[in-house]
Amino acid sequence: MKRRWLLGLPLVMLLAVSCTKEPLDHLTADESRIYVTNYDTTADFSEYATFRLADSVAIITNNQLQGRERTSVDAQLIDAVAAELQQRGYTRVSAGQAPDLGVTLSAITNTNTQLVSYPDYGGYYGGYWDPYYWGYPGSSYYFPTYYGVYETAETSLAVDIVDLKNRSENNNTLRVVWSGLVRGTGIFDGRNAQSQVDLLFAQSPYLKK
After folding, report:
1. Does residue 54 contact residue 74 with C-beta atoms inside 8 Å?
2. Rounded CA separation 179/39 (Å)
3. Contact 196/33 with Cβ under 8 angstroms?
4. What is the pTM of this model?
5. Which DSSP helix (H) or strand (E) runs through 124?
6. Is 29 exposed, middle or buried (0-12, 13-18, 19+ CB in 10 A)?
7. Tens digit of pLDDT for each residue in 178-203?
8. Is 126 helix (H, G, I), strand (E, B) or coil?
9. Are 7 and 34 in contact (CB under 8 A)?
């Protein structure tokens, strides 16, 4: 598989903000998004003619399928992907027909839980109060270590194109010939649906009939 990367950020803008103390703090939601595409270099995309696009988005959390949904934003993303493929010469077919390509969209969320300790929390804040204040001269403070738990989560949009035309009759293995991933802020904001798909497919001029 061959990988391409595209930042939703002009190089000039990147150079401009890199001189600041915290350049990432100055990025807009559009500029924060990263677009990654992979494709099978052995695939001849001109040999495919038709595709079928799933009418819902798979919800995947920590590598587990939670179900499928079709929100208004999901519909926008699905329509945008369909339009992009049709502009490249492929014909969309409906259920009951045998397509050359299968196209799926997934919302992938990965969570990460971390434990952090604050060994100086009590000693630092308690130090504002002298032990004499409490009537215990000669005493000193002792505090146990405080612990906190925090969780981070990132949701990405994945688009995968599967070869159905050349599937093996002997097993259920299907070959992914193209995949795209969008990471960053505001991915599932309907105002960004079309532009995200445009930028994702812009990296793949070879993907055409």
Report:
1. no
2. 6
3. yes
4. 0.73
5. helix 121-126
6. middle
7. 999 999 889 999 999 999 999 999 99
8. helix
9. yes
Cα atoms in the 13 Å half-sphere on the side-chain side of 54: 18
Main-chain phi, psi angles of 159, to 5 degrees: -120, 125
4: which 2 tokens? 């391409």
Q: Which residues, 6+ apart, have CB-to-CB distance to 37 below 8 Å? A: 3, 4, 6, 178, 179, 180, 181, 200, 203, 204
- Say which residues have a Cβ less than 8 Å from residue 45's Cβ, sequence separation at least 6: 177, 178, 206, 207, 208, 209
**Residue 19 pLDDT exceeds 50:** no
Which segments of 49-100 are extended strands (E)? 50-61, 64-69, 91-92
Buried b (16+ CB within 10 A) or exposed e, 76-115: bbbebbbebbeeeebeebeeeeebbbbbbbbbbeeeeeee
Taking the CA of residue 176 as centre, how many other CA atoms within 13 Å lie in the half-sphere pointing to its CB? 14
pLDDT of residue 8: 45
In single-letter form, the type of residue at position 143 comes to F
Burial class of residue 48 (count of CB atoms within 10 Å of its CB; 0-12, 13-18, 19+) = buried
